[in-house]
């Protein structure tokens, strides 16, 4: 499963050093190979191919497209990352025009590199591109809230606003991006949340606005009508969702936040 081009291999041991499962050993000549039985434990993370400076190694569990070299000269500075994180706002006011599907696709493409437990990559995406369908889903959430009076005054107020013609649920967003995964994977919610966070940062960097759709995420786990409307595969659940669109307003300042609560040991 591990192929090595010996004329290119420097026998530097880098692939062996970074394998998270400790599967790579060296033969008598110092070349890497999988230890006996190691193939079954490989998580196809790609560390072995990504670390090789000469592209001498191929892991046959990975797609045969190789590992393109990173342009390290274009590395993003810490200041730029900080600026992106601080400038992200929960956008609840959107412009009317739709976001081109190519722009959404580019952000989803970037989110493919989100980490997941043991590199399982369990995340599936559902993109609702029709504003009328987004509004219909918001209405189903409102009806689910209406049918649960025990939820209290806060949720009753949400339904009241909906009845007044406002949308406190999906905020009139033109699009909705849903992350779902199989129920039988213990880390589905965590993996989807990480992927959604990466998607959000990729979207914000492209001038888009997002807001986490908590009401829909919660209701989609309980409402049969909402589950049916989303049309997820059997055995899948919504793990998180983001409203998406072009932001109507621009925020020019960074609001205050609580100081980080840190214990150093």
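-> sequence recovered:
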């Amino acid at each position: 499963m591990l192929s090595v081009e010996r004329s290119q291999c420097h026998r530097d041991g880098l692939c062996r050093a970074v394998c998270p499962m400790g599967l790579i050993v060296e033969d008598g000549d110092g070349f890497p190979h999988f230890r006996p039985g190691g193939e079954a434990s490989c998580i196809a993370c790609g560390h072995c191919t990504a670390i090789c400076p000469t592209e001498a190694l191929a892991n046959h569990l990975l797609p045969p497209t190789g590992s393109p070299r990173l342009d390290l000269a274009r590395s993003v500075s810490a200041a730029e990352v900080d600026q992106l994180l601080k400038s992200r706002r929960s956008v609840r006011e959107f412009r009317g025009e739709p976001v081109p599907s190519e722009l959404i696709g580019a952000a989803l493409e970037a989110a493919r590199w989100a980490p997941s437990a043991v590199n399982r990559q369990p995340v599936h995406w559902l993109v609702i591109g029709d504003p009328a369908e987004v509004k219909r889903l918001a209405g189903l959430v409102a009806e689910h809230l209406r049918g649960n009076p025990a939820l209290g005054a806060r949720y009753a107020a949400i339904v009241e606003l909906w009845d007044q013609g406002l949308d406190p649920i999906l905020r009139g967003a033109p699009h909705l991006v849903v992350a779902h995964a199989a129920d039988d994977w213990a880390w589905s919610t965590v993996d989807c949340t990480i992927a959604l966070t990466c998607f959000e940062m990729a979207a914000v960097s492209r001038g888009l606005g997002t807001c986490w759709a908590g009401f829909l995420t919660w209701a989609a786990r309980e409402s049969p009508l909402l589950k049916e409307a989303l049309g997820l595969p059997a055995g899948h659940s919504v793990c998180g969702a983001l409203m998406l669109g072009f932001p109507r307003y621009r925020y020019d300042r960074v609001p205050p936040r609580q100081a980080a609560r840190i214990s150093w040991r």
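The mean pLDDT is 94.
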